[in-house]
Design brief:
With about 220 residues, the protein is an alpha/beta fold. The chain contains eight helices and twelve strands. It is elongated, with a radius of gyration of 20 Å. It comes from Clostridium neuense. This is Stage 0 sporulation protein A homolog.
């Protein structure tokens, strides 16, 4: 499971971030000042840092410089909106910079994008407790391999790449069956049912009456 350190001195914001991470099946640890964050980083192994800039004791920029050699993916969280601060943070080597207030869905998208860039395979998608490795054509749920047919795999990937969008059966056929599949659209329904069952996505893959399907975040 991906382990993320939340370094944020505002308890309410920190707890909200943690809630969003938990929902998306990330493991998270919280730190509320710079000294505590440094101790946790040096004594533990994290896959990503969410690092506020304005912190008690040691600021976020200084923390990042101290741990940069560890090569931990880092996203700065800050109320500072000036271009100078953003440029400075990125020039230090941070992977991303998000200004508060922000929507949880935006933060999760940035986390997923950053983690994908650091993936050894460079092409891994994460959704809740599901990991899709495109290069190896493997799907894991809670770290366990799940066997999918080629079209089930391609359909799942298409749904995840288009989260929260309504996908018509015709559009799914065009993209997953490459325009040359002339069967009835019922084949989409059958594949959706199998994916729901194999990956326990009954509540996440919504049927949009008269149109198609939508995978909800």
């Amino acid at each position: 499971m991906i382990k993320i350190l939340i370094v944020e001195d505002d308890t309410a914001i920190s707890n909200l971030i943690k809630l969003n991470l938990n929902i998306s099946n990330y493991k998270s640890i919280q730190a509320y000042d710079g000294e505590e964050a440094l101790k946790l980083i040096k004594n533990g192994k994290f896959d990503l840092l969410l690092l506020d800039v304005m912190l008690p004791k040691i600021d976020g920029f200084t923390i990042f410089q101290k741990v940069k050699k560890l090569n931990i993916p880092t996203i700065f969280l800050t109320a500072k909106a000036s271009v100078v601060d953003k440029v400075y943070g990125l020039k230090l080597g941070a992977d991303d910079y998000i200004t508060k207030p922000f929507e949880g869905i935006e933060l999760l998208a940035r986390i997923e994008n950053t983690l994908r860039h650091y993936s050894k395979k460079g092409n891994i998608f994460l959704y809740k407790n599901i990991e899709i490795n495109v290069d190896e054509r493997k799907v894991k749920v809670d770290g366990r391999d799940v066997n999918l047919t080629l079209k089930e795999f391609e359909l799942l990937l298409f749904l995840i790449q288009n989260k929260n969008s309504v996908l018509t059966r015709e559009k799914i056929l065009e993209n997953v069956w490459n325009y040359d599949y002339y069967g009835e659209t019922r084949t989409v329904d059958n594949h959706i049912q199998r994916i729901r069952k194999k990956l326990d996505l009954k509540n996440e893959i919504k049927t949009i009456f008269g149109l198609g399907y939508r995978l909800e975040e």
